[in-house]
Amino acid sequence: MALALLTPPIAEPLTLSEAKSYLRVSHNDDDGLIAELIIAARQMMETRLAMGLIDQSWQQVFCVGESGRARLLRTPVRAISAGVEITEAGQSNIDVSGVKILEPKRGLIETGFKQGTQLRLTFTVGFGDASAVPADMKQALRLLLAHFYENPVADKSTIGLPSEFGSILEGYRERQL
Predict the structure, then answer these.
(1) 146 or 174: whose pLDDT is higher?
(2) If we measure between CA atoms, which residue out of 2, 36, 1 comes closest to residue 16?
(3) Are the C-beta atoms of 61 and 73 separated by less than 8 Å?
(4) Are 148 and 37 in contact (CB under 8 A)?
(5) How far apart are the first and last CA of the chain?
(6) Dihedral of alpha carbons 85, 91, 96, 98, sign
(7) Partner of 120 for a Cys bridge, out of 20, 84, 161, 170, CB 3.0 to 4.6 A?
(8) Is residue 141 predicted with pLDDT exceeding 70?
(9) Residue 71: is its pLDDT beyond 80?
(10) How is the chain split into domains, by residue range?
(11) Architecture of domain 2-52+129-176
């Protein structure tokens, strides 16, 4: 299964002003750094949860499973915008109006195609804009942002994470099962 980000989010869940307020930073010297850390924190959360916080477009290639169902690897799925059937003879566009999103939080869809059919779908995931991101997800983002700001290392994946961060995310991991 191939998965690719086509269109990243057009905004971040936290503004620079919100982040600086949470971090209690009143000067402008670290604005560039804080802006980068907001992006890094969002990307880490999205990767760990296989979800998008702010609307973004993805494309995935997969084989249809039993009963014409499949699972998209990024959630919550908001819309399916385009599709292609891939065969030995080539590729052809498909009408995606028949593709049903059964469980947006788990990425479960019903394609209307038989098992084994290879498809490439373009879809939108996310909660909407920044105002639609759940409060607990924003709090997890703030915790991670503060942790990154207070522990400056080049490779953010090598540092431990705050336990509260993991506790908040655990509830969302349960939904992914």
Answers:
(1) 146
(2) 36
(3) no
(4) yes
(5) 18
(6) negative
(7) 84
(8) yes
(9) yes
(10) 2-52+129-176, 56-125
(11) Orthogonal Bundle (1.10)
